[in-house]
Specification:
Chain lengths: ~280, ~260
């Protein structure tokens, strides 16, 4: 379980990674946002037993992690943090769906286990894609891309301020917990008798802090529109990135590539045997 | 019309919980003046400052900048001319890079991106942190954060700078740099502070506040020489005007042998 200070660093790490200047970082935020969206749609559209057909989708996050120079370990740690949710959704499948689906001479795998693996794979891929989008574009870039798509400013503002507010909240939690632990040397964690007052304090403190941040925004002419500067032009490279990957996703969706590849190799093997 | 003039007339302010924070405050600050506001904690200094650019609105009386009354409808103009520097720079720096933070104000005033860039670079140059422009604000030292907060205001080209405790939590060398910087400004400056030595160096005029009322409004030197006034308002002379703690008779620090 990461400490609060580590969580704070984790949140900031994605922001810092988004400041790099790799090929992926230089792409237009809109191209990256749309590509991620098409990836998400294709990923979730697979059926519950389409395990082999989905596998080529792994290429997308792996390619971006390599080209975007993103450290894999911190990304994967974040995926693990939210994994209990997906495990909770799929864990009963192996118990309810016991029909054998994959039958090998030495092993039979039930449909439940396959659908559970598909849920986990979908979960890992979608969360990774979202994290990679933040790590290569930054929340401000994503916000400007959303505004370009004419998403109402109120929703974009909500997104940005919530993202910023999490960091403020964690900072306050870190301070409160430090103050608590310094005066309670023998207790492990926070005693439940203090939960009420600590969470109340936290709420009030973060509310006041958010109020001051908002005031400082107002003092600098903020009127509800989060201006992130003019976006650079959408170039041919951006278009090629978007169309290239989207075509790849559609191909993966339409053709079961691993099965076709397997059939092709078997054919070639049998032809070579005949020769 | 000059936007550099601040006029406060019979200002009253009562907080929603019923606490009267300001009572009948009146003063006028003219073009280029540098005015210190001093008083104990809770005297009403920050509340007063927050009225100067419409973060708070008076319960009674009025505040005008130039000849424009501070009112909801005039806020965009007022806030462009009055730059407010918060006590805690962390409250003021919320974007992902220093550059974006300094550009936040000019972008809100819909300036072209080239004009924004020119203003940002010039503001960062003025405060001496141009090399930090791509750093995230939370990774800066306190002194650098303060400089970034000041740059975020300078980029809006204000006529008046309002500062709440600008030297708090700064190390001596950062504090000295800040004083030099504030000295170099030609803006009208209003500085609320407990750092009386800094007030003495920067402000030619000082207003003393106690329990939300003005106790005195005079030249800074006269205020700090008036021991009776300082005693009533719970303040002390600046350290540089006090006797040497080592060699004075009854000095508080003993010389080591």
């Amino acid at each position: 379980m990461p400490t609060i200070a580590e969580s704070l660093n984790n949140i900031r790490l994605l922001d810092e990674l988004s400041g790099q200047a790799t090929l992926i970082h230089r792409l237009h935020p809109l191209a990256k946002l749309l590509t991620t969206l098409s990836f998400l749609i294709v990923t979730v559209s697979f059926g519950k037993y389409d395990l082999s057909a989905m596998l080529p989708l792994i290429i997308y996050p792996v390619a971006l992690i390599i080209a975007g120079d993103i450290p894999f370990a911190p990304l994967f740690k974040r995926v693990l943090i939210v994994s209990p949710l997906a495990i909770g959704l799929g864990i009963f499948n192996p118990f309810f769906d016991r029909t054998p689906l994959i039958i090998l001479p030495w092993l039979q795998i039930s449909g439940g286990w396959v659908s559970f693996t598909v849920i986990m794979l979908k979960f890992v891929l979608t969360v990774l894609a979202a994290l990679i989008l933040i790590a290569t574009t930054g929340i401000t870039g994503i916000a400007s891309a959303l505004r370009t798509l004419r998403i109402p400013k109120i929703f974009v503002m909500q997104l940005i301020l919530t993202y910023r507010y999490i960091a403020l909240l964690l900072e306050e939690v870190a301070r409160i917990l430090l103050a608590y632990s310094l005066r309670s040397p023998f207790s492990q964690g926070v005693h439940f008798s203090a939960w009420g007052s600590l969470s109340g304090q936290l709420l009030i403190k973060t509310h006041l802090r958010a109020q001051r941040v908002y005031e400082s925004m107002l003092c600098r002419g903020f009127t509800g529109e989060y201006n992130t500067g003019s976006l650079k032009k959408f170039s041919w490279t951006d278009l090629a990135y978007f169309t290239g990957f989207t075509l790849f996703f559609i191909t993966v969706r339409q053709a079961d590539i691993p099965v076709r590849l397997g059939a092709l190799i078997t054919d070639l093997y049998s032809i070579s045997l005949k020769i | 019309m000059s936007h550099h003039i601040i006029e406060v007339k019979n200002l009253d302010y009562v907080y929603p919980d019923g606490k009267q924070a300001l009572k009948n405050i009146s003063f006028r600050v003219t073009h280029g003046e540098s005015v210190g506001i001093i008083g104990l904690n809770g005297a009403g200094k920050s509340t007063l400052l927050m009225h100067l650019n419409g973060v708070l609105f008076p319960t009674g009386g009025e505040v005008s900048i130039g000849e424009v009354a501070v009112h909801k409808s005039t806020l965009p103009v007022i806030r462009q001319h009055v730059g407010f520097i918060f006590q805690n720079p962390d409250d003021q720096l919320f974007m992902s890079t220093v550059y974006d933070d300094v550009a936040f104000g000019p972008r809100n005033y819909k300036l072209s991106e080239s004009e924004v860039e020119q203003r940002v670079l010039s503001a960062l140059d003025t405060v001496g942190i141009a090399h930090l422009r791509n750093r995230p604000p939370y990774k800066l030292s306190e002194g650098e954060k303060r400089a970034a907060a000041i740059a975020s205001i300078l980029s809006m080209s204000p006529d008046i700078l309002v500062m709440d405790e600008p030297s708090s939590s700064l190390d001596p060398s950062s504090r000295r740099r800040l004083i030099k910087l504030l000295h170099s400004f030609k803006h009208t400056r209003i500085i609320a502070s407990h750092d009386l030595d800094m007030v003495l160096e920067i402000c030619e005029r000082t207003i003393v506040i106690k329990n939300g009322e003005i106790l005195a409004d005079d030249s800074t030197l006269k205020i700090f020489e008036n021991e009776e006034l300082l005693a009533i308002s719970g303040l002390e002379k600046p350290f540089c005007m006090q006797n040497c703690p080592v060699c004075a008779a009854g000095g508080s620090v003993k010389k080591s042998v």
